[in-house]
Write a structure and sequence with these properties.
Length: 129
């Protein structure tokens, strides 16, 4: 079989007759599982019982994280710092149990991706806030 390709313009291009891909593909930015977990954090923020000022500051931290996660080469340390400030701000106005009730699982996914590039978030998730 002859494969003929005229013109291509994309981040990932597969030109193969019998190609098998395990684990998915992505070009730049955080992996899809991390982005999905982060989007869950964004949605859960809207359900937390916090005042307007705290919610606004929390949204700003999450916007910073979103920019980093979508960058071609995300700064994992910056993500770690922003998410740690996000948690710290929330726990000033509500209980740690309330904050972590829905956020622990998706934030753990992000913390695993951050890995050795930061320990603030992992420490916050592993210790009482």
């Amino acid at each position: 079989m002859k494969l003929s390709v005229g013109s291509q313009n994309a981040q990932i291009i597969n030109n193969a007759d019998t190609q098998v891909i395990h684990g998915g593909q992505h070009a730049g930015g955080a992996p899809p599982a991390v982005l999905g977990a982060f989007q869950q954090v964004q949605r859960l923020l809207e359900t937390l019982p916090v005042d307007a000022s705290t919610a606004a500051r929390s949204r700003q931290e999450l916007q910073d994280v979103d920019r980093q996660l979508r960058a071609p080469e995300p700064d994992r340390s910056a993500v770690d710092r922003s998410l740690s400030r996000f948690l710290e701000g929330l726990t000033r106005v509500t209980s740690a149990g309330t904050v972590l009730a829905g956020l622990a699982a998706p934030l753990s996914t992000v913390a695993a991706w951050i890995g050795a590039h930061g320990g603030l978030l992992a420490g916050a998730l592993g210790a009482p806030l």
